[in-house]
Amino acid sequence: MNKKLINDIFFMKKAISEAKIALSNGEVPVGAVIVANNTVIARAHNQTELLNDVTAHAEMLAITSASSMIGGKYLHNCTMYVTLEPCSMCAGALYWTQISRIVYGASDLKRGYIKNKTPLHPKTKVVSGVCKNESETLLNNFFENKRN
User: Taking phi first (over 0 means left), then psi (-120 to 50 degrees means alpha), and beta for anything else, what does residue 102 get?
Assistant: First the structure.
């Protein structure tokens, strides 16, 4: 395994930990971390129910936190690790941050940015499927429990 993939798995596990916090709070289990220079500079999980705010997705909260941490709106040389493919809203926000990389676990075939053809910044690199099974299991179990 190459070093970049090992790092991606390491940081995705941190995003999964955030997703588990969301799950324990009755939120859709999505977690995100933003990394710069191999250091987590922001972490967040979905809080739409807690905050009664449809924009309180893990990615949006992580962007705000990271921007505050670095003191600027652009996330150059940063990577977002998120357990679920960003939706159009989050992808749009990530476009404006000019983030360097996005690494996500599970694909969102209904509401993901790919399905909705939402562009990312041309310089943003995307890696998908990192810890996909663990991310999908959290989401599938959450929605199965909601239906029962």
Answer: beta
Q: What is the pLDDT of residue 115?
A: 97
Cα of first residue to Cα of last residue in the chain, in angstroms, is: 40
Q: Which residues are catalytic?
A: 59
The candidate with the shortest Cα–Cα distance to 22, out of 148, 147, 116, 142, is: 142
Check: pTM over 0.85? Answer yes or no. yes
- Please give the average per-residue pLDDT across 101-105, as a whole number: 98
Q: What is the DSSP string of 33-60?
A: EEEETTEEEEEEE--HHHHT-TT--HHH
Task: Decide if 12 contacts 130 (C-beta within 8 A).
Answer: yes
The encoded tokens of residue 5 equal 């993939």
Per-residue pLDDT tens over the stretch 51-60: 999 999 999 9
Q: Report the alpha-carbon distance of residue 105 to residue 124 in Å, rounded.
A: 17
Q: What is the C-alpha separation between 115 and 112, in angstroms, rounded?
A: 6
Q: Name which of 91, 27, 103, 23 is nearest 63 in CA terms.
A: 91
Q: How far is CA 114 from the centre of its chain?
A: 15
